UniProtKB/TrEMBL annotation:
The keyword tRNA-binding does not apply. Pfam families: Glyco_hydro_47. It comes from Sinocyclocheilus grahami. InterPro entries: 6hp_glycosidase-like_sf, Glyco_hydro_47, Glycosyl_Hydrolase_47, Seven-hairpin_glycosidases. It is found in: Endomembrane system. Ca(2+) binds at residue 615. Coiled coil: none annotated. Involved in the maturation of Asn-linked oligosaccharides. Progressively trim alpha-1,2-linked mannose residues from Man(9)GlcNAc(2) to produce Man(5)GlcNAc(2). Belongs to the glycosyl hydrolase 47 family. Its EC number is 3.2.1.-. The lineage of its organism: Eukaryota, Metazoa, Chordata, Craniata, Vertebrata. GO terms for cellular component: endoplasmic reticulum; extracellular exosome; Golgi membrane. This is alpha-1,2-Mannosidase.
Length: 638
């Protein structure tokens, strides 16, 4: 019935006239074109879009990759190489969209084939479920983008060979013997970890088993990741290969637990970054995946990250013990070095933007007497308490200011300014001289001094030393003297104990001078800070006392901390019969033994012109001015 009413439809059947057929076909083809075109406007995650559009046709894939490169580094040979990889269509489409690339989804997997990401794809990784995660796939994409900064390009930026002319072998036999001893300690610590705790985070040397703990959100193998670069610089190649193989085949990033943003960053991100830069190990892809898993912690009203993050769900929260849901200065202030390198390797400015935002807020906020308190609200962006310390809760924030400046080849003047103003405020308000003539850095509680210095604060001797050259005019010697005085005080805290190891905290009140007065402060957990300062002061002054002090520490560690199956912390440094805490901390392998080894090596092993150490002693390369093209790109983000 209806058909009969339609013009052009014959009564005898459904036949159409030729002209009608033509119009109908025209209409049909128009409809098909319209539908296909509409695919371009679907969200990136819609499957149809990925099925129908080939990778070179997908405009989102090309965004932010060649776009950034072609816009910001014209003429750079590395850029040209990458731009070609994108295909001709890439550069044309790039001009249209300026979306940040990190949010790009699974589509990027296809694109990464044939790129750097593919080079790094091992069979083990291919089986890893994480590879199917959308954020991970975007990392693959970014890994590819980062291929502009190839490993070879990076190596050509170094001024000197990383391991020196002869692996830093010292010319005199006594120092060489001492260095060999430290290497033996590392082998002993490693072998026992391997035998009794392989894959766990730390070794429990008395009970001969592993410890996982709850700081790393279910990530495993902290001692392995922390040891990679130490094993490598010590020339323990068999052990290094074992460690690398474990990372490649067994380090599972798909964990789902409560992690400290700070600890995962300094140990895992830092450890993997160093392994990559020192050896070219194929960890770049995984590094970027891990970096991305930390990003949700920054989703706060101010962009100041919270301290704890679930690596699986991305939910983040503040430590229960931190007052009023605050974030900790030493935690959110100790991301800068690693995040800058994550941007270098991924080509994504996002990591840099996150840490620059922290710096911006810290610059803007009013500081009591020019000091930075330890607790800040990630919601309001205001200080929560006025407790200031260069030890625990504050320490590595200051360290990362001066090291950001040094790692930028002294171009990051903002970091320079912040560091020296902070130092000035610390000197005015916190630095004290004891009646016995020992210089120390007290803690500050709303204007009242607590005459206590933590073991953690003893890193400051080295920090002030490496910062001596670039402060206000005429201050170099002053800073070198201050660094030497603090290092001397920290050495005193060791030499005044029965074990010749230093307590967790020592005081300068009620008649005490560099000794712990409370039972709860008497322990030593294999911490590195005092030895770290010896190492820097040795490099800066070549005063033989620093090597002697380091050797005293080796003897004390051997005598009191070495047990049958590894090294252990002790509960009371003042007791001549020690009680062990049954824990071989991963930082003993990454920091304490590394700094000792460097102390007894020539200065050309990891020269300070080329390397800065992150706060877990993982060496990260200085980004030299002549290799600045990526930095230029990052300063002018999408
Ligand atoms: C290490 O994890 C790092 O050095 C950190 O900055 C402070 N604490 C430990 C070592 O004591």
């Amino acid at each position: 019935m209806v058909l009969r009413k339609l013009p052009g439809v014959s009564a005898s059947g459904m036949g159409l006239r030729l002209s009608q057929k033509f119009v109908f076909l025209l209409f049909l083809s128009g409809l098909v074109t319209l539908c296909f075109g509409a695919l371009f406007f679907l969200p990136d995650t819609v499957r149809l879009k990925r099925i129908f559009l080939s990778k070179n046709e997908n405009p989102a894939v090309t965004v932010g990759h060649d776009n950034e490169l072609s816009k910001k580094v014209p003429g750079d040979p590395e850029h040209q190489r990458v731009a070609l990889k994108g295909g001709e269509g890439a550069n044309v489409k790039l001009k249209v969209s300026r979306k940040p690339s990190v949010t790009h989804g699974a589509r990027t997997v296809e694109r990464s084939v044939g790129s750097r990401a593919q080079e790094e794809w091992s069979p083990a990784r291919a089986q890893e479920p994480a590879a199917r995660d959308e954020r991970v796939t975007s990392a693959a994409h970014n890994g590819e983008r980062g291929s502009a900064y190839s490993y070879e390009a990076f190596k050509s930026c170094l001024l000197k060979p990383a391991l020196g002319r002869n692996q830093g072998t010292p010319p005199d036999s006594e120092t060489l013997q001492r260095r060999e001893k430290v290497k033996e300690m590392m082998t002993f610590a490693w072998d026992n970890y391997k035998r009794y705790a392989w894959g766990n985070n730390e070794l429990r040397p008395l009970t001969r088993n592993g410890h996982l703990g709850n700081m790393f959100g279910g990530l495993r193998g902290a001692s392995i990741v922390d040891s990679l670069d130490t094993l490598y610089i010590m020339g323990l190649m068999e052990e290094y290969e074992e460690a690398k193989e474990w990372v490649q085949n067994n380090l599972d990033l798909n964990s789902n637990g409560e992690a400290s943003l700070f600890e995962v960053n300094i140990r895992y991100v830092g450890g993997l970054l160093s392994a990559y830069y020192l050896t070219g190990a194929e960890v770049r892809f995984r590094l970027i995946c891990l970096g991305e898993k930390l990003l949700p912690a920054f989703n706060t009203p101010t962009g100041i990250p919270r301290g704890v993050i679930n690596l699986g769900s991305g939910t983040s929260w503040s430590w229960g013990w931190a007052s009023a849901g605050s974030s900790i200065l030493a935690e959110f202030g100790t991301l800068h070095l690693e995040f800058l390198h994550l941007s270098q390797l991924s080509g994504s400015p996002l990591f840099t933007e996150k840490v620059m935002n922290i710096r911006k807020l810290l610059n803007k906020i009013e500081k009591p007497h020019g000091l930075y308190p330890n607790f800040l609200s990630p919601v309001s962006g205001n200080w929560v308490q006025h407790h200031v310390s260069i030890g625990g809760l504050g320490d590595s924030f200051y360290e990362y200011l001066i090291k950001s400046y040094l790692m930028s080849d002294k171009t990051d003047q903002e970091a320079q300014k912040m560091y020296y103003s902070a130092m000035e405020a610390i000197e005015t308000n916190l630095v004290q001289k004891s009646p016995g003539g020992l210089t120390y850095v007290a803690e500050w509680r709303g204007g009242i001094l607590d005459h206590k210095m933590g073991h953690l604060a003893c890193f400051s001797g080295g920090m002030i030393g490496i910062g001596a050259d670039d402060g206000p005019a005429g201050q170099r010697q002053h800073y070198l003297d201050l660094a030497a005085e603090i290092t001397h005080t920290c050495h005193e805290s060791y030499s005044r104990s029965a074990t010749k190891l230093g307590p967790e905290a020592f005081r300068f009140d009620a008649g005490a001078e560099a000794t712990a007065t409370r039972l709860s402060d008497r322990y030593y957990i294999l911490r590195p800070e005092v030895i770290e300062s010896y190492m820097y002061m040795w490099r800066l002054t070549h005063d033989p006392k620093y090597r002697e002090w380091g050797w005293e520490a080796v003897e004390a560690l051997e005598k009191h901390c070495r047990v049958d199956a590894g090294f252990s912390g002790i509960r009371d440094v003042y007791a001549s019969t020690v009680s062990h805490d049954n824990m071989q901390q991963s930082f003993f392998l990454s920091e304490t033994l590394k700094y000792l080894y460097l102390l007894f090596s020539d200065d050309d092993l990891l020269p300070l012109e080329d390397w800065v150490f992150n706060t877990e002693a993982h060496p990260l390369p200085v980004i030299h001015k002549r290799c600045l093209y990526l930095q230029t790109r990052l300063k002018d983000p999408l």
